[in-house]
Amino acid sequence: MKKIILIVFIIQTSIQFVEAQWIQQNSGTNQNLYDIEFINDKTGWAVGDAGVVIKTTNGGMNWLNVPNPSGQYGGLMWSICPVDSEVVYAVAGYDFIMKSTNGGLNWNVLSGRPGSISAFKGLYFLNIDTGWFVGTYKVFRTYDGGNTLDSFYAPWFTNYDIYFKDINSGIFCGSGRVFKSTNGGMNWFDTNVPVGGMFYEFRKLAVFDDNVWVVGSSSPVFRSTNFCETWEIITPGQQIGGIGIHFINQNTGYIGRSLNNLIKTTNSGYNWYEQRTDSTSLAFISSITFANDTVGWYSCGVGKIFKTITAGQWLTNVTSYSNQTPNKFSLSQNYPNPFNPQTKIEYSIPKDDFVTVKIYNLLGREVMILENEYKKSGSYKITFDGANLSSGVYYYKISTGKFEQVKKMILIK
Length: 413
Fold this sequence. Notes:
The chain is mainly β. 5% of the residues lie in helices and 43% in strands. A 5-stranded antiparallel sheet has the order 22-23-24-25-29, with no helix packed on it. It is globular, with a radius of gyration of 23 Å.
C-alpha cells in the first residue's frame, strides 16, 4: 500500500513539474530579490533587501548565503554583475559598490557613503576591469577594476540600469527616460522615448545587438532597433506594464510583472502571451536571465526564484496582449479557476464602447463592479480579489452597447 501511495505521489509531482514549466527553487531567503544574473547554466547570483547576496553553482538546486559588508551601507542590494566565476561586482544603497575576486569569499568596498540618500542601482562590465555604475545624477566609470572611479554627471535623478555595447557607446534607463553616451559615459543625452509626458519606471534594459526594449509600470512596450537613436511604441493602446524584462534573441523575450505574472513574445514584442507559472504566488517578478535559449531563471519579491529548462509554456485560452485591434467582442474564462482569493478576468472589444463588468453571487445579487467606464478598443485584463467574499459560486458579466456575456467562477477558501 505504501509503495502504491509513493508511486501516485511521484506521478502527481511529475505531472505538476511538466505542467508548471517554471519551477520554484529554494532560495533560502524571504527577502525581496531585485536582480538575478547567471554566467552559465550552473553559476548564478541574486541580491535583494537586508544585504542579501545568494549564490548557486548547480543551476539553482541549492542557494548559499554569501556574507558581505553591505549592511553598514544600508543593506539594500540593487544589482550584481558576475564577470566570470571569480570576479563579481555589486551595488547597493548609500552609493555602495563592492567587488570580489574569489567568487564571493571576500569583498572589497570600492565606494560608500553611510547615511547618504542616494544609491547606485545599476552596473555593467565589458570585462573584469572595464565597467560603469549608475546612480542618482551620476555615472562612475572604471578602467582598472574599481581601483580608480571616474565620476560623470548623469542628467536624471531616478536611474536603474546601465549597458555598454563597447568602450564608447552606452545607455542607461530611469523614470520615463533612456539616456545615451557616445564617449564612454562622460556625456549623456536624452534619447526621447515617446512616453507622452509620463514617468514610467523603467527598471531594466533588454538589449540584443542594436535592439533595445523598455517597459515600465502601466506602460506600453517601447523598442529601438538602432541602439536608441529612434524609438517606437510596439504595443500602442496596450498598457502592458512590467518590472523585469529580458530578451534572449531578437525575437524572443519575457516581461515580469506583479502577481507572479510572466508574459513572453516570439515576434520582437509585438504580441505577448502569458506563461504558465505558480498561480499561488503573488510576488512581483523583478529580474529575468537566461543561460541559453531554454534554460532561464527569474527572481521575485519575498525571496522567490523560479527556473525553466524548456523556455516556459504558454497558457491556453488566454487572450494575447497585442498591438492589433480585436475583431470581435469576447470574455475569457477567468484564470485560475477555482481561485483563492485572486483571479484574472480578460475581455476584448473591437471598437470604443462603454463597458461594465460586474460580479454576482449565486442568487443573482450584484456584489462588486470591476469596470464601469468608456474604453478604447483593445484587450483588457482585470485582477479580481475575492478576499472579502465567502467561498462559493460567482458569476461575472460584461455589458457593452451591443454585447453581453456571463461566465461562472468558483472561489474556494
